[in-house]
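Budget justification note: compute hours in this period were largely spent on complex prediction jobs such as the one shown. Inputs:
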Amino acid sequence: MRTLIFATTIRYLTPLFLIFSVYILFRGHNHPGGGFIGGLIGSIAFVFHVLAHGPERTAGTYFQLTFYHQSRQEHYSLPRHMWQLLQANTWNRVKQGSPSPWRYYMLRVRPAYMMATGLLVAATSGFAGLLAGLPYMTGFWLPFKLPLVGGLGTPLLFDTGVYLLVLGMILKMVFTMSKE
Amino acid sequence: MQPYAEEGTQAILLYIRYQAKKYIEITVMLAAILLGLVTAAAAPLLYRWLGKWVVVPVALTPLLLFLYFCAFLPPVLQGQVATQQYDWVPALGINLQFRLDGLSLLFALLITFFGLLVILYSSSYLADDPLLGRFYLYLTLFMTAMLGLVLSDNIFCLFLFWEITSISSYLLIGYKQAEKEARVAAWQALLVTGLGGLALMAGLIILSIAAGSYTFSGLVGVRDQVLNHVFYLPALLLILLGCFTKSAQFPFHFWLPNAMAAPTPVSAYLHSATMVKAGVYLLARLSPVLAGTQAWHDILTIVGGTTVVIGALLALQHTDLKAILAYTTISALGLMVTMLGIGSAYAGKALLFFLLAHALYKGTLFLVAGSVDHSTGTRELFKLQRLGGPMKLAGLAATLAALSMAGVIPFLGFVGKELLYEASLENIGLLLVNMMAGVAFVAVALLMSYHVFWRRGPDKTPLQHAPALFLNLPPLILALLGLALGATVGIVPAPLLQQAYQVLGNSPGAEMKVGLWHGFTRVFGLSLLTLLLGLLLYNGLNRVREISTVLAPVYKYGPNALYHRLFELFLHGAKAFILKLQNGYLRSYVMVTMLFFCGLMLFMLWRDSPGIDLSKRVYQLQEMRMYELVVMFLVIAALVFLLGTRSRLTSIVVMGLVGYAGALFYILFGAPDVAATQLLIETLTVLIFVLLLHKLPAFTYVSHQFKKYKFIAVSILFGAIMTYVMLLVQQQAQPSTLKEYYGDSSYVLAHGRNIVNVILVDFRGLDTLGEITVLAVAALGIFSLLRLNPEKGDKP
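Corresponding output:
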């Protein structure tokens, strides 16, 4: 499966898929779509990526944030040092493993945690109603609307929870199965 | 359904104000329970932060609670009752209703005071244990549950706490989890008391149906209605089953001696002073409602009496200090149940005084046994000699407690025993049983104090370490309390017990006159006789043990052996059943599910035999569009192809094709959301299969050709039945306003135009929440299965 064309295409398509999945999530309240469908689309994006590049690469690219840092060198001014840091963390990212003065901090997102977060978000979105003395899961909407996204409210939060849960579940499944 | 933001914030503010007022009103009995729960939850964390000093905050909780309940003493002594209510599930009558009267207060003080001492004691007893935090978690949880149990007025609330005590008891018995003995004992205790708990729940529900009331205070008022109700006997039997298992009555007594596998402070607290008395407590609480019938009297006196005799007999045959104490506890619990069965005014008094005296002296003796075990490393009676020298404080405590246990004036045990004799004077059989227990108690008291500490022997038992202060102080306090309360019996304990006695309702309003000295009555003579006989029994104890070895074969058929045999049988049965049912082939699961469903459907069709009228619907065939036909034929062709193919990839793709065709149908019939989901799921399934394809074994027809046709036949049957049912459903469409309601109110109430989504996340959001929770749990299960590697020898 790891043909060059497929791999390259997927590299560019995955972010598109993801944006589309979020879009589907938001439009779900008024048009076909929603958290479940959005989560499935998002996970399909990652499944393709895993197929093309392997699970380690996918985890490294999308579920891991690395910050590079080093203390200011003596002959560097502060703005220059900042510039260097910015450079290292954005377009001129330092490769790992090579001996360098850079220290790095990693932030990893595990699919299982994503599932848990989704469940938590979905379950807590209903507390807004409870706080107001109304039944659990009574919906509240903000009085304004955003372009593209539409109205914001607790049902949307609930749907986001569903999205995260579905995404996390399929990712975890795919990662576990392909690592075997 | 959705107020706008401004209204929302206002509502929130109002609600918070309202709640705050309500919380102050319901004040603190709920807070007492919550404090316990919070301490329990914090204990492991505190242990991590504070190390051995964790005992300070943990011990502070029972101390605070004890003082808090002490503050209730003046009003309760005047006969007032404190009540609090917090609605929980009002529709089902399940509310957090608390009620503090004399009986509850007696137990609450006992629980908190004992809890404090036991927590202090365990800080020394388990000083080097790395799991001390967890131990305090369980212990505090238990204390809280026990408090809730005695404070509950609502029967379901009581049941809830009842079960928590069973579970925390299980956790505490199995605390030394590395030892098989402890694990087995914990299981046993949980199964026996849990089974009793189930019976109790059924009994309480039946009782509430019969009485139409869910609170103890309400039940008292409808006594006649309950007694004459046809449900009286079943409710009584079930409740008694629950109480008997909890309070270790024959034939369920066997779990209690086995529970001695728990650390000694636990044995002292749960298995002698408090938890095992929960059954007695509930019986006492319900006696104004249920007592007074022949059934109540007979069952309680017979079961209680048998338990007394068995406990006393078995206690004398053992040589392990804790086992001896456990069996005498069983005997004592039997006495309490007997007293409840008698139900006279004397019996009520005897029950309460004996209960208090027993808690104090038995708790002391257990704690002393723990100290001895901790200091010398053994609990065997014959290895322990002359410990009085090095363990003076423990020896003193044990002696004081033993004197109380033997019923020597002026200890509280004396008062308890006098009253016990007094209560059973009229029934010669019960008096004999009572005397027997008394004699056995005297002998055991001599064993626990004189034999271990003071008797002159050839050599001293060496100590492994000097006894720590906290191992000796708590038992000494308890023992001294037994002496003090005995000496001041008319002044200090009597008023509280009087109030507790009012709850029993044996003869309401009766003034309780209790003094230490009654003059030379018949009962005093019996007391002296008991002491004398006890002394004789102690001297002849070795001979009793020799004789009792004859009884050994009988134990093979005792309840304990029976329990183990049943347990084994159950495990074997379950294993055989599972092996038959769960053979590991997905196809057979699917087939069984389908066949079962088909069977149910066929049964219903055969029973109701609904006619299906196709003639009126032929026109629908004419309305069929060309593209619908094309999709249908595509599916059929794909299926035929699927049956013949021998490649896994092909079959997956063909299955995907069938799925896509289904999605196409959804689109054609105007369900874009469902179609999208279907499409995506099909895609994902194919993708995941592809991902795994090269790891799967070669795709061969393992099953016989015959089996293949069998599967095809089952599939066709299933499909045919589904089609038939669908046609039926269409024919008898139920008129429903639901569709219109959702259609009309989707935008108005829920701000959404996509009805499917609005239903999912708003109208039926709770269902979705349940579904995603199930999804998450199922996923976790799948992952643990995926992690499993049978080739490495992992076991499922």
